[in-house]
Amino acid sequence: DAGVTQSPTHLIKTRGQQVTLRCSPKSGHDTVSWYQQALGQGPQFIFQYYEEEERQRGNFPDRFSGHQFPNYSSELNVNALLLGDSALYLCASSSGTYFSTEAFFGQGTRLTVV
Amino acid sequence: AQKITQTQPGMFVQEKEAVTLDCTYDTSDPSYGLFWYKQPSSGEMIFLIYQGSYDQQNATEGRYSLNFQKARKSANLVISASQLGDSAMYFCAMSPGGSYIPTFGRGTSLIVHP
User: Fold this and answer.
1) Is the preceding peptide bond at A43 cis, omega within 30 degrees of 0?
2) Chain B residues with CB inside 8 Å of A105's CB?
3) Does pLDDT of A1 surpass 80?
4) Which of A1, A71, A90, B61 has the fewest CB atoms in 10 Å of its CB?
5) Which candidate from A99, A101, A107 shows the least CB-CB separation from B44?
6) What residues of chain B have any CB closer than 8 angstroms to a CB in chain A?
7) How sure is the predictor about B36, in pLDDT bands with cuts at 50, 70 and 90?
8) What angle do CA B52, B2, B48 make, to 5 degrees?
9) Closest residue in B to A55 (Cα–Cα)
10) Closest Cβ opposite residue B99 in set A40, A99, A105
């Protein structure tokens, strides 16, 4: 049984560009949450998708947007990239519940903005 | 607002020894959950142990135990019989009951020496 998979694993982008990160949830999970983890910090909640809609959002600007597909996979889009967007982006999947021990994380996408 | 504090940026322990990683939290919610995660260099956040705010007994999971002192608002992780594979970043997190959004600490880097 595959766990949470994220692609790509690494990415280098230039300031001002746009990026799309992808996440496939663990089998049986219908909820996907995205986190940003800056160097030396803990993960920060960006938003959560359930039933193809954004259910909850953290304190991130509108440059950060997402989408969930009917197969529960999800994309994170970041527009007008800033140097400060360089971070590890983690995806976590769960079964439509509040944050709990059921959340499984992927290995992340490491984004570098130059 | 919730806050998690991990005051130890780095810890060193001899193989087979026990080690305690500190975590204090601040919340006004009467119901909350406390989580510990391990993050190896691969990036994936691996769930270790959970403690509910109303749980009377300290949680244990194999070599991991959580020293929960509610009045002091602390939730320290104890790893017994450390192994070389325990070398990683460790994050404490909290989520209020009924919340989708966890708050993570800044993490503690643990290095296990042979």
Assistant:
1) no
2) 37, 44-46
3) no
4) A1
5) A107
6) 4, 33, 35, 37, 42-47, 50, 91, 93, 95, 97-102, 104-107
7) very high
8) 40
9) B100
10) A99
